[in-house]
Amino acid sequence: MIICSNCKHTNMTGAMFCVECGAQLIGRDTLTTQTITTENLGRVSKRKTGEISQPVEGEDAWANLHLLDTGQVLPLSSRSEFTMGRISEGQPIMPDIDLSPYQAYAAGVSRLHAVIKRLGASIIFMDLGSANGTFVNGARLMPNVEHVIKHGDIVSLGKLRIQILVEKNG
Hints:
single chain; 170 residues; mainly beta; six-stranded antiparallel sheet; 2% helix
């Protein structure tokens, strides 16, 4: 276990950022590279007509969202822009990526929380005025202001932590 020097929260061993306050837990000189395996990941199931579709894996995948708490990897492909959030009963506007199956409500993810998009060679992330905020590597994003992110960045939607894995262009 790692104790956050900022808020004294106890975090899991290997965590790079505090799940409570988002502060960096270990210095840059002590970081090590890890291999992320996908052997035990389940496939996204087929949805019925009318339901929100998740991004599908394919040759045109440009990034993956690695959900750090569950280990699930969500590939982004075929489109250059996705809204992220959670679905709730009677919601008129649905997010492109529904994070509800990943405990999004408990983590403080808003119904329409953020946008991730590819703009040329850059990856842009923007908070959509969410109630619990969006953080990149522990720094809070200003609502409705685009922020460039890069491979390996940790984005927190509320307390839901996602590592951005950018596919290299051939």
